[in-house]
Amino acid sequence: MRMLQIAALGVSLICCACNSGSKTETSQNQIPADTVPVAVFDGDSAYVNVKRVVDFGPRVTGTPSHDACGQYIVARLETLGADTVMIQEGVVSAYNGDRLPYKNILARYNADAPKRVLLLTHWDTRPWADQEAKLDDRSKPVLGANDGGSGVGVLLEVARHLQAHEPQVGVDLLFVDAEDYGQSDGWGANEDTWCLGTQEWLKTKPYKDSVVPAYGILLDMVGAHDALFYREFTSQQLAKPIVDKVWSRALSSGYGDRFVNEVGTAITDDHTFVNRAGIPCIDIIECMNPTTKSFHPSWHTLSDDMNVIDSSTLKAVGQVVLNVIYNEPA
Fold first, then answer.
1. Residue 123: count of CB within 10 angstroms of its CB
2. To which CATH superfamily is domain 11-326 assigned?
């Protein structure tokens, strides 16, 4: 996963937005009536999903553990009643010359619906724990329980509910690969070295003869204890109506304490490229941790394991996403 990237508007503007204490206004008519969930998200079930993914080991693109996890995700989506599961495979070059055999996985629910929503997450992990204090540890791969695993765990639980209760809209669940192989220095010039799977998927996205999603929601690092989710800066700039929709639904769902109604910092993430492709997309991500002032302390370290994951955080994110989907009109 990418380190914090300062937006082109400059440090002072972002710091002002994050630290001044001013809130992004959300008028009362944007807040829906109290939400009665069609489906009750099970945080414990999502936790089990995360553990199963983590048990494969580091999911570094092109390794046996990565291949095994990809097969597992496909099998689970087929078991969970997806109308179709589409696999995009290929080889992409990383910034350092490594050739990465990536696999993007797309599961479609209510495939004939004329209106669609895209939910996505990455499922690969960082090849190097480059945020470790000890130099000897920085070359070791990351387990990625939170950074990658948490989003997979939530979306697989979402899939279980989509199988049981068909929403009014179509839902596409996209698991993208080769996200976390990017260059960690020179952020502004090197942002295209990240999210390689998403960039490849967007070149041939399966919407030429069907409906392009009305919007997208990216889940990244959504499982840590006591995680808070601010309105990520790029999402706020490029897809503010979707941010308003999700944060209002979080408030009406009883998770206003988790979804903080303030603007956070800017992140280069998969949603960056989805927005560029013309699909408004937001990022639900922990990026204002009180200790680091950025990502969770386990980010790109060997401590990103199951000890980081909290079922109540998975529950908060998953329930909000379900409430958004099931209240989305056709």
1. 28
2. Zn peptidases (3.40.630.10)
